């Protein structure tokens, strides 16, 4: 794997091997990279979890993290994504982790760039590392995927997490259902009430209402959204035995989920954050190992 751009590009075999490697890292295994790699994290949109979790994972697999402050970079002078990444390549960077507001920004990096690109979120497009950590969280809980019912609730059309998870979960045999107001369904067929969804859901995955991507949200009422689509204390009490609550976070407390449920017994919201470090170690190792093998072939056969 040279890059990680979209869940569409990963086979079930590849994603299961990343999950199993994350499990080994969580048990304390060390990385198997033969040298230290230089990486840079280019976050053109805000992030707490993904940026710090990648940096932690990079350090744990022996990388040198080269600081890059997107808010003080030459991108502000109009430098293109291609020129920015090519510049970092010439400086000696091996891999970049990028978050940007443009969907599929990575298409302009597919030709002419040798640095590995890890997509840390492209607008409302994809968020593959979040999806992989979500899959890892589900796998830790249930040991497999086939036949599980996962209900994804909220701002579906603006959610890169929903799109990445829908692809991966369906490929793995999961029954994925969506619940949201009709105007947020995008290309998905969605339910508009909780009726019949709560009692058989193995996973209720809540999504943040992404006000920053809404053109007009003047009519949005937190109270009525919570009442209609939020996970209330009363709804949580009706959830199936052994089922879990997930949310990629950040959470709008008392909007998507009642504040007192964020750390309830069923909630895996903070576990997801912890799992993210192991998954990102596995992603980085897989990509950097691929570069190592490629370099060996090039030097042995001078190609
Ligand atoms: N879940 C997630 O992507 O969080 P951040 O925006 O804080 O990285």
TrEMBL record:
Residues 2-139 form the Aspartate/ornithine carbamoyltransferase carbamoyl-P binding domain. GO terms for cellular component: cytosol. It comes from Ureibacillus acetophenoni. One of its GO terms (biological process) is 'de novo' UMP biosynthetic process. HAMAP family: Asp_carb_tr. L-aspartate binds at residues 77, 160, 208. One of its GO terms (molecular function) is amino acid binding. InterPro entries: Asp/Orn_carbamoyltranf_P-bd (IPR006132), Asp/Orn_carbamoylTrfase (IPR006130), Asp/Orn_carbamoylTrfase_sf (IPR036901), Asp_carbamoyltransf (IPR002082), Asp_carbamoyltransf_Asp/Orn-bd (IPR006131). Catalyzes the condensation of carbamoyl phosphate and aspartate to form carbamoyl aspartate and inorganic phosphate, the committed step in the de novo pyrimidine nucleotide biosynthesis pathway. This is Aspartate carbamoyltransferase.
